[in-house]
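Hi R.,

Here's the chain you asked about this morning:
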Amino acid sequence: MSQQQLGRGPLRSRRPGPTPPAPDGERSDNSPPARFVGWLGGLGAAAAGYGVFQFLFSVLPDSIDGAAARYLISGVSGLGTFVAAWLAAGLLRARAAAAPAAAPVVGPAAMAPGAPGPLPRVFAAAYDTLVEQVSVVPDPERGRLTGWPHSLGEDTPSRPTPVGTAYGLHIMLDLGVPEGRLSTGDLVDTLWRLRLPEGGWSARSQGSEPRPEVTALVLGALARAGASAELLAAEVDRCANGFTRRLDRTGHESTHVVTTVLRGLLRAAPRSDILPVLREALADGAISDPRRDHLRAWGYRLQPPYGSPSPLHTAQAVVALDRAARALGEEGDARAARARAAREDGIRWLLSCPDAPHDTCPDLANLHEEVRRPRTDDPTRHEVLNVRHFTASWLARALLSPGALEIARAEGLQDELRVRLEGAMAAVWAGQTDGIWRWGPGESTEERRPMWMTYQGLSALRAHAVWMYQPGG
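And the predicted structure, written out as tokens:
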């Protein structure tokens, strides 16, 4: 999309933009070096020469024989300074004229009307990379598997995993498969083949026990791809029955787990009885933050100890509650009203970030957390799920939610939303190379290219482009 189609200017940057090139390929005379050269070649040389003359005439000792000698020495020195300055200015002018004009920076603001913007190229590059790196593995027990591992470019054999393949399917559905190099039907079949023997899905590090957050993620992707409602219903029931406080206390207390399950099941089974229960638990887990006018926000836990309010977890809760509001409604029910009040407070909390600039503020810092569950086969040992969070993408998606836009309009917070959204989107854009996002080295020595991060980055860019589009602009 061109910026003319989008109807808004480019994302703000703290660095000044380039000076526009002069017409007909001529160099502009308004740059600081050009102005200096012009001044030095004109009045500057004469001023320098006269200054040297005056200085020498005033400081030369009276022992020099006569005023004429002093005038002569000062005059010659001043003339020499003038000539040297004039020649230096001429040299600078000649070098400036001979140097090729700097190529203008190709960016949204510099594009001609009707020219395509960079977003289609990024989407096309991401699609090409995913098609090139898709794994096709024959499995003796499950048949032919087509998908992706957790991250692109893994050194271990690239066997498709439920998490990587589910996010890959989400990406393909977002981009729209333009041709037949990759079939979404193969991805759907693979996800069903990766289902555990007793039903459900788990991450690679979780072993053979199904986990609700992974199951809900896969079910959401399958539902978007048009999977059978009957098959989905059986798995939804299995997921809901296993996701109780008694059976999975750790998951029920985790903001990340509850929001993931809620989002996935809203796609797969929007009439499921578990959805109001999860919404109520999420709303009740909000905590007051005295540092931001006692607005409610979310930490990483929904039960004490809550931890500090977190922009990442608040954004996740806002997105999940906003989607639940569309599917379940928020009128005529006290519990729904509490959920709405908590969601609206979370939006205000995100808009009240006191730091600047908003493309590098602490609210955008990526996070890493662990979900530790006791193993059912040996409660003395724990299963550890490492979860990394692309905070800028979550913040952008929360601010682009219909509820956030409604609050901004109703309460006159459009400027606050625009500035914080532009900062989040600048951070999202900066993290990608040819449409693929990298999680930088942290506790490991190598960069990762996780599928979930690319999905979240592309999803944020797409949502932002749709929000900015103005027909006929």
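The CA atoms of residues 8 and 464 lie 11 Å apart.

Let me know if you need anything else.
M.
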